[in-house]
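Record type: monomer structure entry
Structure origin: computed from sequence
Chain ID: A
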Amino acid sequence: MEDYSQRVNELERLVGRLSNDLAENFFQTLQVLSSIVGFTERFYDGSHAKYVSEKSSELARILGLGKEDVFQIKVAGLLHDIGKVGFYDSALYKYPNEMRPNEFKQYSLHPEIGRQILSNHHGFDNISEIIFQHHERIDGSGFPMGLKGNQVHPGAAIIGVVDYYHNAVYKIKRDREDIQDSKVINTQAFLNNTKEKYSSAMSFLQQKKGILYDRKVVDAFMAIAEMDRSKVNGKIVQRLPVNLVRPGMMFVENYYTSYGLLIASKGESVNKEMLGALVRFAENGEIPHKILVLADANDAG
């Protein structure tokens, strides 16, 4: 009996080690893929992938989805545009209604290309399906399959709303060097820079809920977006040493490594997981030792 119990315990430890190894392998793969996506984002003010990932997962939690669904939506949001790797610039900076037929033809392939890229890793099976569907619309006018209503995966329906909003408000037609030179000097400027685009995007979502987008998803996301903008009013712009940066602060500049990888994007909120990495990047000279953030007045350094 003792031998049997010992063998069971050894087997459980082995399974535990294998599970940890598989999880580590998945996250390493995810890190590589998200780094690749970063190189397609030079026509955004901030990271499109990170925004879509964070807001989509936040939205999924608010809508009551389970932890596994929330995680898969977060990953799908981070990788939803991986199928654009290698695309011509015209398929990256233009809006679909501005594209010539051949440009839109290439652009419309990216959900299928994204699914194919992830198809060889079983850990991405459901995630790749969400990515495949993120341009579907509930009235059947989306692509690539023209799905309708409940045929659209809930994760894809969520990402579709967040993706539209960030594209409408933060896509720009400038090179990354110009973006880096753009400085925010106060919170009012931070809001004014996107006021017109923000109002237009919110109006479009309001008009198209129940037509292109699920009503509950739109209503919940609009509440999130309005709350995010209202929070900015109570903050001031500061240049803080990285070791004094705290969760809840917001980056007001994009910070890149020496090899061009975006590691912190304008408008992104700081979370606990970032803090150690920020310090290491600063110590290695990859980012400045002091960075610009939006923070509460009583956090002033």
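Annotation 1: The domain at 2-179+187-232 is CATH 1.10.3210.10 (Hypothetical protein af1432).
Annotation 2: The beta strands are 235-241, 250-251, 255-256, 262-264, 290-296.
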